[in-house]
Amino acid sequence: MVFDKAASMAAFHEWADQRVAMVENYSGVLWDYEKEQVKEARQLVQFMLAHYGLWAKYLDEDWDFIATEQSFDLPLPPPAPRWLRYAGRFDGLLQHRETGRIFVLEFKTARGISDKELSGVFRTMQPPAYLWAARQIYGPQVAGILYRIMWKRIPDSPQPLKRGGYSRRKNQTSTTAWCTKVIEQIARAKYQAWAGRQDPPVEDEEAVEDLIVDELMKAEDLLQIMRAEDEKDMQGRTVRNKFFYQRQFEAEDFSIDTTMRTVVLSGLEMAGDPIIRPVGGYNCSWCKFKVPCDLENYYRDPEAAEQVLRTNYAPRDYWED
User: Fold this and answer.
1) What sign has the CA pseudo-torsion 254, 260, 263, 264?
2) Closest Cα partner for 260 from 128, 122, 73?
3) Of 93, 102, 151, 304, which residue has the fewest beta carbons closer than 10 angstroms?
4) Is residue 120 a contact partner of residue 162, using CB atoms and an 8 Å limit?
């Protein structure tokens, strides 16, 4: 399994274009400030993908993809009626080359990679419920879920100094891999600027590599700081630095069974009255079901809510993302 940055960027921009078009079709052309927000969000994701590729390429060497973006729609276990189903979508499924064990791959973004920020990720019903769903499809060799969590932040790039070398500020928020990549790009840009002034222009990859080594030596003090700060914290099934966090989640059969009983009871409750229930603690402003939900729960008009649902909403494949 190899992370393909170009393909990932293309897929992201295709998805973003579709989402913007959908919003404009639903509510009209974006305001200027909204366009600026979209531009900033695109830039953030581009940097996150580029940075993720540097971190993940060594972790991915032992894995093969089985599937990506796999949807599932499964009947819930008894005592649920057959019409009550559990549906969702896995970000991916991976198989370990050496052991043959299968893991669901799930990506999350966070406001930070601190223990405080991550404390709630593994305390929801999703991990054991997804593990149950994956085993219904692929059998008992599904061992767990591989979570990869990314900090929603653009890393600081190395700052060249006028006197040579690079700034050694200890409060720079970056990683060794990112700094190394940027410094290599700086070295290549310097060579191309010099080579372009020659007559005729020259191309010498060996000279480029020598210049990269020289530039990295100038940045050694900075890179030592970065290495000390982002050294991988290897603790059992956990790999992390300040931007990325990977953890394997595995659950006992008892935990899975208990979770699915709760899912069944919740499903039965949701299938009754009221039609739509708001989820406490969530920001509803962008929810595609805000209008019928408000009619049901705040204006106490369930008939109007059901009418809106049945007449104004597109088929499921429109909103399930």
Assistant:
1) negative
2) 128
3) 304
4) no
Mean pLDDT over 195-224 rounds to: 85
Q: What is the mean pLDDT of residues 201-221?
A: 87
- Single pTM value for the model: 0.77
Tokens matching residue 113: 């990679």
Burial of 126 (C-beta count, 10 Å sphere; 0-12/13-18/19+) = middle
Helix axes 290-297, 302-312, angle to 10 degrees: 160
